[in-house]
Specification:
Radius of gyration: 26 Å
Helix content: over 70%
Strand content: under 5%
Order of helices and strands: HHHHHHHHH
Number of helices: 9
Structural class: mainly alpha
Length: 206
């Protein structure tokens, strides 16, 4: 069961990384990545042991992030794929981890902006002129920023604090305690059985 839980939870970082690589190399984040994150959320939430109120909180968080992403897209700050990826990642985060996710995304976005500006500077641009097409595209002056990279970075850093991850660890700790308690109970029963056997044996010899 734990293998299934871990496998479902690993869908999140795997798809976040794929989204970042897609945006970095093509300036697009396919819709199937965000849709796959949404589709995998429910089985991952149920397998991780999240309660219905926790799942509802995640859904509300995702919806709020979708509204935020639509506003950022309308303002021209991010692309449509970025807004969808932001909402899908927020769905997995839940509250209050989404606050950390947005903070880390903003910090990663600042670092990404500095890196791209450096790449497009006059003394670095000639070095990438002979590189792959996607690197040359990144080095073009006035080009867009692959903000999906910052979203994925923020998501990966914040994921250990995500509601689903916390629910999984809490259930794992409870399960380990239950197994330990069961083992101790079994050992105690075995010891008592041996003691009773020894007593009956002594009485029989008398």
């Amino acid at each position: 069961m734990q293998v299934l839980q871990i496998s479902l939870l690993l869908v999140f970082p795997a798809l976040a990384i794929v989204g970042a690589l897609k945006d970095l190399t093509s300036y697009t984040i396919p819709n199937w990545i965000s849709l796959a994150l949404i589709a995998a959320f429910v089985p991952a939430a149920l397998a991780s042991g999240a309660s219905l109120p926790q799942i509802g909180l995640c859904l509300a968080t995702g919806f709020g992030a979708l509204v935020l992403g639509m506003g950022m897209f309308a303002a021209g700050w991010v692309g449509g794929g970025d807004g969808k990826l932001l909402a899908a990642c927020a769905l997995w985060m839940g509250w209050p981890a989404v606050a950390l996710f947005l903070l880390y995304t903003a910090l990663a976005g600042g670092a990404l902006t500095l890196a791209i500006l450096t790449l497009r500077s006059g003394w670095v641009a000639p070095m990438v002129a002979g590189g792959p097409a996607w690197v040359r595209r990144l080095g073009q002056s006035g080009g867009d920023l692959p903000y999906g990279v910052a979203i994925a970075a923020g998501a990966l850093i914040a994921f250990p604090k995500a509601l689903l991850a916390q629910a999984f660890w809490a259930e794992s700790v409870t399960a380990r305690r239950g197994r330990r308690r069961a083992a101790l109970t079994g050992i105690s029963a075995l010891v008592n059985y041996k003691r009773m056997t020894m007593r009956f044996g002594q009485k029989g010899r008398c």
